[in-house]
Amino acid sequence: MTNIKDLAKMARVSVTTVSRVLNNHPYVSKEKREAVLDAVKSTNYQKNINAVHLSKGKTKLIGVVLPFSDHPYFSLLLKGIAKQALENNYHLVLFQTDYMQNKEIEALEMLQKKQIDGLIICSRTCDLQIIEEYLQFGPIVLSEDVKEINVSSTFVSHYKIFSNALEYLYQRGHRKIGYCIGRSTGANSYNRGLAYKDFHEKYSLSYNSEYIIDKCLYFEDGEKVINQVKLMNIAPSALLVTSDQVAAGIVVSCQKQQISIPDDIAIIGFDNQPIAKMMDITTIEIPLMEMGRNLFLQTINSEISNKEVPVKLIERKTV
Amino acid sequence: MTNIKDLAKMARVSVTTVSRVLNNHPYVSKEKREAVLDAVKSTNYQKNINAVHLSKGKTKLIGVVLPFSDHPYFSLLLKGIAKQALENNYHLVLFQTDYMQNKEIEALEMLQKKQIDGLIICSRTCDLQIIEEYLQFGPIVLSEDVKEINVSSTFVSHYKIFSNALEYLYQRGHRKIGYCIGRSTGANSYNRGLAYKDFHEKYSLSYNSEYIIDKCLYFEDGEKVINQVKLMNIAPSALLVTSDQVAAGIVVSCQKQQISIPDDIAIIGFDNQPIAKMMDITTIEIPLMEMGRNLFLQTINSEISNKEVPVKLIERKTV
Questions:
Q1: Could you report the per-residue pLDDT of B125-183, keeping only the tens digit for each?
Q2: Cα torsion B28, B34, B39, B41: sign
Q3: Cβ contact (<8 Å) for B93 and A94?
Q4: Is B91 in contact with A92 (Cβ distance < 8 A)?
Q5: Where are the domains of chain A?
Q6: What is the CATH number of domain B59-156+289-309?
Q7: Residue range A123-143, pLDDT digits in tens
Q8: Which residue in A33, A311, B18, B221 is a FRET match for B71, CA 20 to 30 A apart?
Q9: CA-based nearest residue in chain A for residue B68
Q10: What confidence tens digit (pLDDT) does each residue in A285-303 have?
Q11: Which CATH architecture has domain A58-156+289-309?
């Protein structure tokens, strides 16, 4: 690749002169300027943009940490982030972590090394203390309710959502309620667990740990849930399912096995994805696209802000 | 931000000495080296990685152009690309284009400016001639059968898939066959259209342009398809649906409207996504994860290669 020294040699001028011409500085004679531009033309020279970044300190790249890009929850969040990035002329660097901590650290290190201008963490495994250490290097935005450290965030309250949904089921006569989650670790599941525990204490209901069904992420996991429920001594009468995809899988699996919804088991999904509407699934609407857009805007805004996004119960036919 | 000049001032040495210490060059006295390292420590100085890229010419970033990140086809392809990138210690820069040509050009320009080491184009709107111009700047890999230009690719033959699927339906007595696609422009749809036309000529069947249903991308589009079919004077007896999501939407919509599958209308989906398995949809299996992995490997490999990936018809209950 041609470099600035080659250009200087070809144009018979100094490296400084080439640099001045490339950066549009004054004080270069017309002859020298033309000689340099001729050399640029004949070599198809491309200014290395990393050199530009070096002087300006901006890459126009924002990192996005997410565990899986093919999960409808994260792909909708990513779509919102990407739409806003497009409008603001930024590009996204994707960190698909599969929840491996070292991959999250890599993203944080890219922020430290100025390879990205900011970082959006859609779901994390790192401790907040680790993230706090990297805040000095650039904006980091989280998609959860963070109180421990001073960082921007856009989130829904999973405690409130669970409390309200459990209350709704209780009012409709349900006393044996279970729930399905993607993973048992993580801040969101911690808050859900807390709401579940508080609900059982409030109404003095017996707590059955079997009713907490882990690793439910995709449509096909719905079948697994129903098979697990069938093995229980006392089956739950209702399930909160933290993904409409899994809820849809449950509905299809129940149809196949002649299990009646909501008579045998009631279902509340999450997100209000199109599949929930088409399959008449009662669900909690979470405005993921809007959340994604806001996460992006917080990343390029220097002020710290925390935004709780309201959710809505959509009543359909599975409760 | 601290720069190299500040460090020189603090350590009371020249800029050259600081640079030598930072790059581990010899010929620096022990005292000066320690003075520089103290300054680095006290200012928490971070070497700007763009300066490193400048000297090495590698970013370890690969760009991925795709129209929508939330469509199951592209999100599975992206998952495969991301998995392989993870294994090879690369990161991905996402270009979600919504099929806007200027966004594709931006990605190509980032390759030209060495901001990325290579580019995977999952689906394009740019002419091949435009892409050809950028091949001099770094590897570009396409996910389609390209003969016009010398570029690596991983693809399935949409002509063959359509021919075989139409033949399969013909053998089962279907003479009025329609199909649903995501967009009518684009190389894949061109090849599908060709197969469709050739099939009609081969069997002297009448060709009905109404049977080509455009803009079918998501689950919820299934309902739109059925509503459109109901308005036709003569409805097709079978549909090739180039997305399992749309096929699943069609199945659910037919259930609601008491339309019997396959008796009233037969359906063949595409991809063999989990939803097709759970809903017993006959489909063409396309190994998207494997294709994504190969696209990535081709990008970091300097040799040009073209790989056609075989597909498989999975017979279930919708034909």
A1: 999 999 999 999 999 999 999 989 999 999 999 999 999 999 999 999 999 999 999 98
A2: positive
A3: yes
A4: no
A5: 4-47, 58-156+289-309, 158-285
A6: 3.40.50.2300
A7: 999 999 999 999 999 999 999
A8: A311
A9: A79
A10: 999 999 999 999 999 998 9
A11: 3-Layer(aba) Sandwich (3.40)
